[in-house]
Structure formats: structure tokens, C-alpha cells
Amino acid sequence: MHIVALAAQDDFDGWRRAARALVLIDAAPQQVLWQVDGDADLFGAPPAPLPPAPEGAFAVPRAFVDLASTAICHSDPERFSLLFALLRRLRDNPRQMEDSADPLLRRLDHMARSVRRDMHKMRAFLRFREVDGAEGARYVAWFEPEHHIVRANAGFFVRRFASMCWSILTPALSLHWDGEALSEGPGATKAEAPGSDLVEEVWKTYYASIFNPARVKVGAMLKEMPRKYWKNMPETALVRDLVAGAQKREREMVATSAAALAGDNAVRSWDSLRIEAMRCTRCKLHETAGRTVFGEGPLDARIVFVGEQPGDQEDLAGKPFVGPAGQLFDRALAEAGIDRSQCYVTNAVKHFKFERRGKRRIHEKPNGGEIAACRWWLEQELTLIRPQITVALGATAARSLFAKPVTVSAMRGEAQKMPDGREMWVTVHPSFLLRVHDRQAEEYALFVEDLRRIGRSAAERARAAAADPGG
Ligand code: URA
Q1: Separation of 347 CA from ligand 1 center, angstroms?
Q2: Both 356 and 444 in a single domain?
Q3: Helix H segments across 311-367?
């Protein structure tokens, strides 16, 4: 019997080293006992070192490494030996990974899928709570994963919340990030995690204000957000009451929505929306992009400008339209007599999509799926702000706002009246002006002219509203 002691439940490198050596000495799966350091030693003695492996090597397909490095995080204690059995078969038949009917492969595949699902749930449903620490604010979250995924998910949280100090507590392990380094600590209990705080209150306020009883689909909600995660998510404390009082609330909402979304409530709701957007995983961009760049500007703005997506400089600054296109936009706005500080400026897609070339990050257009996934955030921003005028800067923004592909040249320069009387405008994106070298001056003048029209329309609407405040 060979006993292998792995350093941790997710010790893929340790498993790989031992498994290779064991395959080379032709050990059978039933002759190997896999143990994790810290488990009770079944034999009362430390495991003996493996006999030296004979010279030799064998290659395994990349698909196996991907499968094994994921499935190793599964909570099933049999995973080590199942993976070892598959590895042995691969030595004799390198095409084993292609046999999708093979029960062993299917079982391991199923495990890997379950692990990936659990990782996604942790990213989507983990909620930080703010606590005061000696070094300032710290955000602490409690999460109970199904599998051993916490370490594998650490990189995601470091990238997403790089500038915050945070701790994630789980029963087996805790992670701590101080803004520069990640450290690990022992597992914790739920009692050690803070219960409720300001961020939570803000998020609840927001959730209550956007909750639309007319759209409740309980089945879909449960599928997306299984009940087991509800207890750690502040907003779910509201769901039962909100669903129960749906009809009453629907009537009240019609009467009070404008008032409820105004003032303080809107600021608090926008804050929680922005915080929530920082951990958005609605599309694949979050895996490679930098940070979420949310919109900014006054929440009672009459005009909202919507761009395509943040660029390199916006991603670094965390603010929309601050790079070259943003500077040109500022200049055109000033010439058209529009005060940017009175407008809300945002993007259709909140992550910078790029292709890396050496040290440079080259802009790549977002695709339809990414635009559709991110529309959720734009809709929330527009619901909170309720601008009189929304302006699409370029085709991506227009596609998001109209929920279909739109030809900018066919729509530009005229207000599109919405059924509720609000206006939607379409014009070119400022970066287009940076690309048309031969007729830049003419195109720039046309852009400023579009902005002037928009400014005039906003001013007329403001005058009409002042003359008829109840209208
Ligand atoms: N382009 C955009 O569409 N948005 C920005 O924020 C910057 C450049």
C-alpha cells in the first residue's frame, strides 16, 4: 500500500507529482491511499515516502490537466483516486479523454462542472460587510462553499477588490487582503463574521427601490440564486415580504416611484449599485478586464451620455471618458454650451475589453452578448436618474439603448421621442473623430452641432418644467 500525504484538499501540484511517480512504478489505484495533511492518520504512523520512480516520462493532454486541476477541488474524497485511475488509463491510451461515454470521465467531468458552478456562486453571492479596523475600513464576508474552491477563487477577489482591505471567512480557510499581499488564516465560524452594516443597509434600500413586483419569477430567481446562499445576502431578507406585498407595492410604486427614487434614496441606491457592479460577473469580460468603470455625475442630471466602454486610461482611472476621446468630448461639450458637471456620463459596457500586444492593451469592440449582459447596469442607472434626454455616443451605445443594432447616420441629429415623452438622441462617438484624419474638422463641427441641438432641447424642457411644475 502506498500512502500519499497531500498538503491541502486542493493540493493539485502535490497530487500531480505523486500520481506521476505512482504511474511510473505501475501502482494500481487500489494500492494507493490518498491522505490530506491534517486528516487523522489512519495507520497511526506518518506515511512512508514513495519509492523512487524509475526514469521515464509520459505526456498527458492539456484537457486532462484542466479537468484534474478543477476536479481536485471537489469535496468528494474519492476524487484523488478517480483522477489517478484516469491518469493510468491515459498512459496506455492518450485518446482516452475523447471517449465522452466513458463513465469515469463523465463522473470527473461532472465533478469539475460542480466545482466551476460553486466558484461562480462564490463570486456572485458573496457579500462584504464593512467593519472598522485598526487600519481603517475592512470588508468582511462569510461564505460556505460546497467544494474546496476558496484558494482557486482568491485571484478573482484580489483583482476585483484590489484597492480594498478585505477578509473572506469560510469554515475551512480564511483569506485576508491588505491592499498589497494576500495571506491565509484558519477557518472561521459564521459567528465571527459581522452581521449587518451600512453597505448592507444601502444595498437593501437599493434592492427595495428597484424591486419590480410585476416581474417576479420565483422559479427563475431560485435557479439563479439557490436558497442556500440567501442567508448571507442582505437583499434576500426582503424578498419574502416584497413578494408577499407585491400587489400593494405595485400600486404604491406607481404613485410614489418618482418621489422614492429622488434625493437621498437615489444616492444611497446608486452607491450600492456601483459597489455591486464592482463584482459583476454577468459576462466573461470580468475574467480578463481590469475594474468595473461605473458612470458618474449628478443623479438629478437632465442629460445622460452613454459611450461604448472604458478605454485604457478610463480603466486605470476608474472614471469614464478621461482619455483622449474624453478630452475631445469635453472640448465639444464646452463649445456646445453644455456643462459636463451637470450631466451623467456612463458607458454601455462597464469593463475595458482589450487585446494585449506586448505591454499595450489594444481596444476591442464589445460583442452583442457583452452589450446585452451589461445593459442591466445601464438600465438601473437610467431607472435611478430618469433623465429627460439620453444620448447614445456611437453604435454600441445605440445598440444597448434600443436593444437592437442601429445605424448611427440614419438616426443622428433628431430626437427620438419615447412613449413617456423622454428623448433619446444618437450621435457619433468622440473616438470616431480621432480616427477620421482627412475630414476631422467637418466631422467635429457636425458633432458639436448635434450637441448644441441636444443642449437646446434640454434647455427648452427645463423651461417648460419650470413653467408647469406639475406637468
Ligand atoms: N470611450 C468610451 O466609450 N467610453 C469611455 O469612457 C472612454 C472612451
Answers
A1: 7
A2: yes
A3: 312-317, 324-336
Q: Which residues contact 38 (CB under 8 A, 6 or more apart)?
A: none
What atom in ligand 1 is closest to the CA of residue 313? 7
Residue 342, number of CB atoms within 10 A of its CB:
13
Q: Same structural domain for residues 58 and 162?
A: no
Burial of 339 (0-12, 13-18, 19+ CB in 10 A): exposed
Q: Are residues 13 and 140 in the same domain?
A: no
Domain assignment of residue 216, given as a range: 198-244
Number of domains in the chain: 4
Domain boundary among 121, 155, 178: 121
Measured in angstroms, how far is the CA atom of residue 309 from the centroid of ligand 1? 5
Q: Locate the ligand 1 atom nearest the alpha carbon of residue 345 and give its number.
A: 6
How many C-beta neighbours within 10 Å does residue 379 have? 14
pLDDT in 10s for each residue of the chain, 471 residues: 888 999 999 999 999 999 999 999 999 999 999 999 755 454 455 556 666 666 667 788 999 999 999 999 999 999 999 999 999 999 888 888 888 899 999 999 999 999 999 998 898 888 888 777 666 778 888 999 999 999 999 998 888 887 788 899 999 999 999 888 999 999 988 888 776 554 555 555 555 555 555 555 556 656 656 666 666 666 666 666 656 665 565 555 545 444 444 456 677 678 878 888 888 888 989 887 778 999 999 999 999 999 999 999 998 888 999 999 999 999 999 999 999 999 999 999 999 999 988 878 899 999 999 999 999 999 999 988 999 999 999 999 999 999 999 999 999 989 999 888 899 999 999 999 999 989 999 999 999 999 999 999 999 999 998 887 665
Q: How many angstroms separate the alpha carbon of residue 307 from the centre of ligand 1?
A: 5
Atom of ligand 1 nearest to the CA of 320: 6
Beta strands at 389-393 and 303-307: parallel, antiparallel or unpaired: parallel
